[in-house]
Amino acid sequence: MNNLYIDPGTGSMLFAILIGVFGALGFIIRNAIVKIKFALSRGKGKQENNEKIPFVIFSDDKRYWKTFDPVCRQFDKRGIDVVYMTESPDDPALDNPYPHIHGEFIGEGNKGFFRLNFLNANIVLATTPGLDVYQWKRSKDVDYYVHIAHAPNDITLYHMFGLDYYDAVLLSGDYQVEQVRKLEKLRDLQPKELTVVGLPYMDDMSERLNSEFIQYNCVQTVLLAPSWGESAILSRFGSTIIRELLNTGYNIIVRPHPQSVVSEKEMLYKLMEEFPDSERIQWNFDNDNYNVLKNSDILISDFSGVLFEFSLVYDKPVIFTRPDTDWAQYDQWWLDDELWTFKVLPTLGEELTADSLNNLREIIDNCINNPKYARSRQIARDETWAHYGRGAELAVDYLVNKYNELAKKED
User: Fold this and answer.
1) What radius of gyration do the chain's Cα atoms show?
2) What are 345-383's pLDDT values in tens digits?
3) Would you list the domain boundaries of the chain?
4) Taking the model in full, what pTM does it have?
5) CATH superfamily of the domain spanning 207-384
6) Per CATH, which fold does 53-199+388-410 belong to?
7) Nearest Cα to 396, choosing from 64, 123, 120, 206?
């Protein structure tokens, strides 16, 4: 029997129709209940209200807790209550240590989005792109949607229309402001509020790193942490790159992207079976990447934002690959400008190609020992990591000021 397949566009349309049907039914039922209660109480009873939540943070995956943790801490420090809605049942946010941050599991996938689509809140903060594009629709009872960047690179690397229907975006650098404004002009969109706040989670990583004693490895450790998909390192080079890394004589850590475990399970398990954990190689799947980044001397990745975390926070060199990507599905397709990511990466480390794989040891040694890469890191920090150490403070300042502004309009 053939499996029934529905393409994403059709699935999204059907889901939107279902939301409309269930929403209408829900409204009719709630309205009927209110009328019955009113009649039974002869008009003396108090009508029940679905109270508006001032601040909601939404996360579609537990790995984004590191993005929101410093923001939550700042809210808690100010004594401001926040409802943290997550689609991960094992999200650290559900067991967070902050009295004013109330974690709530809202269900996975469409179940979670269904809850969000009828949310009643003043402000929703999220790092999930695609609002009002696919399953996640704007709720008529939410006043303001704010996106916060979760990586220190191009804001145009989201899939098409990733930020179009947010009201505001909190960015890490001025070049991202220019990218958003160009997209808005090309698409004839109403300008969003854009505020550069920096990178709260990288501020956190940097503070944590500066407070700890760093123990240097006797043997160099190379971290291979690719993205996922056809253009990512494991898909392109497979077992070849791992074998070449082992030939360097260095210790190797392989940290696959979390989505690889879901979408590339067969490929990943074959590689793990061919290269099992040993004294020379380890596979890492920790939710928090702090320790694995701290304990590595150099990072090899492709187009993942972890390249900038490693280089700019930990002050270490990187090796990168250029993806063979069809940009037609990304916001970047609309712009003629070269990606900031691939203008800056060559100043932070060396490019790895299929032809240079057999010279991997030489490339690694050059990146570690060449002082020019260290000098370039500060330039990149200045461009993509504004307001160093103040990201969470500025983000919450913006959100609280926006809440007060909205409240004045309602009065």
Assistant:
1) 24
2) 999 999 999 999 999 999 999 999 999 999 999 999 999
3) 53-199+388-410, 207-384
4) 0.82
5) Glycogen Phosphorylase B; (3.40.50.2000)
6) Rossmann fold (3.40.50)
7) 123
